[in-house]
Specification:
two-stranded antiparallel ribbon, about 35% helix
Length: about 130
């Protein structure tokens, strides 16, 4: 599990609203709309656990249910042996791009999504990651 670190930036509420706006106020994992009365409150999760890292690929709009479900299971530093879920693929591709020094802006990552979301890019570029053990 990724340890939580960093501090929220002063403009966190604006950043979080932008992330939710980009997701059309729906959970990017299950697709449920923001509906606090039925238990689906949209949140923004820092995938790498660093609250100060507000790169687009680190911020996922998730309902509280999905947020709690993945928070202890997703570890950006762990290479995964199975194909990534469709919802997660852009985020891990952005993260891998960042690690290997390639452009990590959303547009570039999305154009090269399949290549950049493959963990083999890390070894090709000589980046060491935690293994799955």
């Amino acid at each position: 599990m990724t340890k939580h670190r960093g501090e929220y930036p002063e403009n966190w509420s604006e950043i979080a609203k932008d992330v939710k706006d980009r997701a059309d106020w729906k959970c990017i994992r299950c697709g449920h709309p923001h509906d606090p009365e039925s238990g689906y409150c949209l949140t923004v999760h820092h995938l790498d656990g660093d609250k100060s890292n507000c790169r687009w690929w680190n911020l996922a709009a998730l309902c509280q249910r999905c947020h709690l479900s993945i928070q202890s299971r997703v570890d950006m530093t762990r290479v995964w042996m199975f194909p990534h879920s469709d919802w997660f693929k852009p985020y891990v591709a952005g993260y891998y791009s960042f690690l290997v020094g390639l452009p990590d802006d959303r547009e570039t990552v999305m154009v090269n999504l399949d290549y950049l979301s493959n963990p083999k890019i890390l070894s090709v570029c000589g980046v060491k990651q935690n293994d799955q053990s």
